Prior knowledge:
heterodimer; A: mainly alpha; about 0% strand; globular; B: Alpha-Beta Plaits; 2 domains; four-stranded antiparallel beta sheet; 12 strands
Amino acid sequence: MISLVRYLAADVFRGQRYLAPVIVFLGVMGMLFSSDAGQPLEAYSGSSALLYPIAAWMAVVVATSEDAVRREITVVSAGGWSRVLTAAAVVAVAIAVAMALVGAVWPVVTNPHPYTAGEFFVGLGAHTVCALLGVGVGLMFARPVFDSIGRTVLAVFSVVVLTYPLGRATPLGWVLDALGHNTFSLSVVWAGVVGAALVAGAVLVGVRRA
Amino acid sequence: MDGYLDGVLLDQVSKRYGRGPWVLRDLTLEVSGPVVLTGANGTGKSTLLKIAAGVLKPTSGRVVRPASVGYVPERFPSDVKMSASSYLAHMGRVRRAAANDVLERLGFVGSLTAPMSELSKGNAQKVALAQAFLASDVLVLDEPWTGLDPAASAELVSLLEGRTALVSDHEGHFASATRVDLAGGHVTIELSRVVGLDALEALEGVRSVLARGSSARVVVAPDRSDHVLAEALRLGCSVRSVR
């Protein structure tokens, strides 16, 4: 599994499609924290909300990095779809967690408000939860669940856009609501559980569809 | 899917995509040496190979294959950014297999460190073959001679000698292999008032018998269909359809 994860990660980084979400993430982060972003946890809400669609985008990039034919070779070499889709999910989550770390560290460096270690870890956890939710949405609609990249983009974009107006009705809303009130609540943990379940569910759906 | 470690067994495999027409129907095939699939375009060769390799699941039927299968698709993608050496090293680690000399034997010419998108069609095909030969048990190769020069084609034949391999080939490169012609297809005979089911199953050319109450669907090799029909009538069955 480690070899497979290394191969899929190398393939993602050899291509250049990962650059677009990374650049958008870093650019918007720069804009968000160009001035006083508010209280420590409150400041994290903007970057957490940003990380959700970026992680979904990155998950689609990871899932479709190999074209369909090369993915077939990888599936046969690795011994089945479940291994390959699990490895792809691991790569997507690892990249998303790295971006969550950047999102959590950035305001500590740039925001004029001082951060305690506790606030930093709450922020890191909140970012990770939002990243997991994004990865879950991205993988749920990427190949092999949807074969066409057009349908994938449309479905992921629709779900991501619809998530925000639903507010506290979604796990993302639980996280953003807690951060917006400069507090931490158990709902953030539950949102993380939903995010992990979404990623696992996307892998299972992919294995069934393949 | 374990327990049949010498080769691949496809047992009454059928395949259709969605609600489309049947691409394969009740096909049984045992691969325990070199086997070449022949047949016209659209007879289901690539679909059968994907099922044998484990890329596709059959709609019905059973596939038993060993753990280590090597697969070459009909067209290896031409836009791979990774270099050949990096790709083969990764595939070797994924399989936990040692590097082989297949590239050298096939006469690979070009840069191993350049992106594979810069390789010629023939050299890219040699890379595809090299990764498949990392497998230790069975090879499933879809038109593997595509793009190869005569020397490489002959070398590929010698590499395949003695291996358990299921290969599609239009041009007769691998004369010593067992040939299976998918174009021949099969004849399906629907019977009613069936008596002597065991006797029907035992007839030469009968590939499968699916009994439903007093009716049965019998799948027969085309060259034996007349004989099976005559025997079914002699046994007292009624023939509802032959297709």
